[in-house]
Amino acid sequence: MKALVYAAPNHVQIEQRPYPVLHDGEVVLRIDAVGICGSDMHAYHGHDPRRKPGLVLGHEFAGVVVEGPGAGRRVTGNPLITCGACDYCLQGRTNLCADRTMVGMTRPGAFAEYMSIPARCLIDLPPGLQAESAALAEPAATALHAVDLAARALIRPLPEARALVIGGGAVGMFAALLLRSYGLQRLSVAETNALRRQSVARHVHCEIFDPLQADPVGDDACELVIDAVGAKSTRQAALRAVRPGGVVMHIGLQDWASEIDMRKLTLSEITLIGTYTYTQSDLRATVSALRDGVFGDLSWVEQRPLDRGAEAFADLHAGRTPAAKIVLRPHG
Questions:
Q1: Which end of the chain is more exposed for a tag (fewer CB within 10 A), N or C?
Q2: Angle 192-174-230 from CA coordinates, rounded to 5°
Q3: b/e map of 102-124 (b: 16 or more CB within 10 Å)?
Q4: Is residue 332 pLDDT above 80, yes or no?
Q5: Tens-digit pLDDT profile for residues 291-310
Q6: What Å distances lie between residue 293 and 55, 142, 298, CA to CA?
Q7: Cβ-contact 146, 139 below 8 angstroms
């Protein structure tokens, strides 16, 4: 079968790979759509030691079961494969399972015509939800999980807050769109890429600015700041922008370590929350939200065939596309 393989830092290529072996409790999917995630880009740049050259990346997928239980089902699924027995799994907090593995990291991923995955990871698609939209459930669920955690930590209801989203990539876009759908009116998005700023302005209808040129938000201004980048500079910007008693939601992991203003965090009683992916219930809720149009028409998402995957990675790397998300189609 055809697959897009991470061959070396800054290089992916189409290769022929063996058809997946069907193991007990698993299914084989025909992949109809798969998104390029920021973590795939992180691996592409050679910055993720867990993802080694020779790996088929990709974990944002939708397709059809072609072998195993439920053949013919249209599905998306949770790429996190958890133990199901630890305290976190029994609590429904499967994203915190210490024994988790993941497609596109510890086993071949979805940048391929076919992929195997445990059947328990699957979520059926509702009628009318196209594969290209369903493949967005994974990044959208990351945003939903983060926004819902932040909303529970705020002192006042979310619609009363002023919010800043740092980063106009896919998770930042989904977070901004979800905040709007939850009734939040005072929203700003910081994004350095001019093409993405245009896309955010067109689809989210909020204040959008280049943080390298100006800071219209100012210090101590927002009850909620979502850092969807996770760099040293964005962490510092988030702590500056949040007002006393506010919440900083940290999603991105561009840099793995940096100093933050612990004095402000302490003296201003800032709630700093780290978040990782989502739960299975978050993913199900997100599939329903995509069906119901909560995230809008998704016209900011770009689609390309898998054969143009190397070009898509290169364009994302160089900032040549306004699309915060590129979805690849392995079957044309």
A1: C
A2: 50
A3: bbbbebbbbbbbbbbbbbebbbe
A4: no
A5: 999 999 999 999 999 999 99
A6: 34, 17, 9
A7: no
pTM over the 0.85 mark: yes
Ordered structural domains, the chain, with CATH = 2-136+298-329 (3.90.180.10), 140-274 (3.40.50.720)
> HSE of 221 in the Cβ direction (CA atoms, 13 Å)?
15
Quickly count: other Cβ atoms within 10 Å of residue 254's Cβ: 18
Rounded distance between C-alpha atoms, residue 162 and residue 122, angstroms = 37
- Are the CB atoms for 241 and 218 separated by under 8 Å? yes
What span, in angstroms and rounded, lies between the C-alpha atoms of 117 and 306? 20
- Express each pLDDT in 94-133 by its tens digit: 999 999 999 999 999 999 999 999 999 999 999 999 999 9
- Residue 11 CB: number of other CB atoms within 10 A? 14
Helix, strand, coil percentages, rounded to 5, for the chain = 30, 30, 40
Q: Which two tokens stand for residue 60?
A: 């944002």
The token pair that represents 188 in the structure block: 């700003």
Q: Which two tokens stand for residue 13?
A: 């290529």
> How many other CB atoms are there within 10 angstroms of residue 72's CB atom?
7
Which candidate, 123, 120, 88, 118, places its Cα nearest to that of 106? 118
Positions of E strands within the chain: 2-8, 11-16, 26-35, 55-56, 60-67, 74-77, 80-81, 101-102, 114-118, 122-124, 162-166, 186-190, 207-209, 222-227, 242-250, 271-274, 301-305, 325-329
Rg (CA), the chain: 19
